[in-house]
Amino acid sequence: AQSVAQPEDQVNVAEGNPLTVKCTYSVSGNPYLFWYVQYPNRGLQFLLKYITGDNLVKGSYGFEAEFNKSQTSFHLKKPSALVSDSALYFCAVRDDSSASKIIFGSGTRLSIRP
Amino acid sequence: DAGITQSPRHKVTETGTPVTLRCHQTENHRYMYWYRQDPGHGLRLIHYSYGVKDTDKGEVSDGYSVSRSKTEDFLLTLESATSSQTSVYFCATAGLAGGFSYNEQFFGPGTRLTVL
User: Fold this and answer.
1) Beta carbons of B101 and A32 less than 8 Å apart
2) What residues in A contact B42, CB-CB < 8 Å?
3) How far apart are alpha carbons A97 and A18 in whole angstroms?
4) Contact at 8 Å (CB) between A109 and A8?
5) Considering only CB atoms, which chain A residues are within 8 Å of B50?
6) Closest Cα to residue A108, out of A94, A90, A96, A95?
7) Which phi and psi (to 5°) does residue A6 adopt?
8) Are B91 and B32 within 8 A, CB to CB?
9) Do the beta carbons of residue B3 and residue B56 sit within 8 Å?
10) Cα–Cα distance for residue pair A23/B2, rounded to 1 Å
11) pLDDT tens sequence across B84-115
12) Across the interface, do B90 and A106 touch by the CB < 8 Å criterion?
């Protein structure tokens, strides 16, 4: 069965430094992967997705994600963190049993210190 | 939030009472979803709809029912609320374009439900 794992509950980064939020996945077919962000007291917002093509996917707010098939990973990255990037980040994968559903990871809280 | 509203935004109720949450969208999206968010569990799918009057269960559907009588509205009902259903509930929608599996979901602002 497909699944997605976010191994870090929390990531702390200094403002201006690069950030990485990790995600690994397990699927039986082709992976369709997503990243979402949730700011306090808000719903999730879509950041980016990988369907096929280039392994480096660019998304909103300067974020990008690197798809690595051999390592079954889809890490979220940003070259220079902002305090305003502090939020909860979710990785997600399409559900193979029903293409209209996606499965979310447990989330990683990103904290950017000034 | 892509034209998705949820009502009420906050509700406190007592164990055993019925509760209905409403999701309304103006995007004409085919797919609609109800999730619950709990600490340590991320988002878990309760029920979803793939068209008017077409619904299916998610991974945590026990104790919940849904209805979709028109494209824009998706209702979630807790027939007899329990304390374990205290949570934040999110509605989401997704459109149909090409392969629907490619489409990202858009989320509403959430409803915070407390069952005493």
Assistant:
1) yes
2) 90, 104-107
3) 36
4) no
5) 100
6) A90
7) -115, 105
8) yes
9) no
10) 26
11) 999 999 999 998 755 555 678 999 999 999 99
12) no
Peptide bond into B8 cis (omega under 30): yes
- The answer to whether the Cβ–Cβ distance between B101 and A90 falls below 8 Å is no
Comparing CA positions, the residue from A80, A48, A95, A53 lying closest to residue B104 is: A48
Counting Cα atoms < 13 Å in the Cβ hemisphere of A63 gives 24
**Cβ contacts of B24 within 8 Å, gap of 6 or more:** B4, B5, B6, B7, B72, B73
Burial (0-12, 13-18, 19+ Cβ within 10 Å), A64: middle
pLDDT tens digits, B20-49 = 999 999 988 889 999 999 987 889 999 999
Residue where the block lists tokens 């374009």:
B97
